[in-house]
Specification:
Length: 94
């Protein structure tokens, strides 16, 4: 029954390989699926409803949320700035 399963990449007895995933799932549950979430337009009654709010949350999470370690900029803005600076060449500001 367990044939073909790969072991955890973490060391035995720690949760470091799961920490990021568990944090993201916690954010998803808190920000996306709770009552009153800005991503919901009504009750989640069907799989299609859940897919719709999940898609909206993932889009926001990947493109618009403000990230402290990026200087309170959205990830998409930080990525665009990175590539603009890289295109300008080493040692030159874009």
């Amino acid at each position: 029954m367990l044939a073909g399963l790969a072991g955890s990449v973490g060391s035995v007895g720690d949760a470091y390989d799961n920490a990021l995933a568990e944090t993201t799932i916690g954010l998803y549950k808190t920000e996306c699926t709770r009552d009153g979430s800005p991503f919901r337009t009504g009750p989640i009654a069907t799989l299609a409803d859940l897919e719709e709010v999940t898609s909206a949350w993932v889009h926001w999470y990947n493109t618009q949320r403000l990230m402290h370690r990026l200087g309170r900029r959205p990830p998409a803005e930080a990525e665009a700035g990175y590539y603009q600076q890289a295109a300008a060449g080493p040692g030159r500001a874009a």
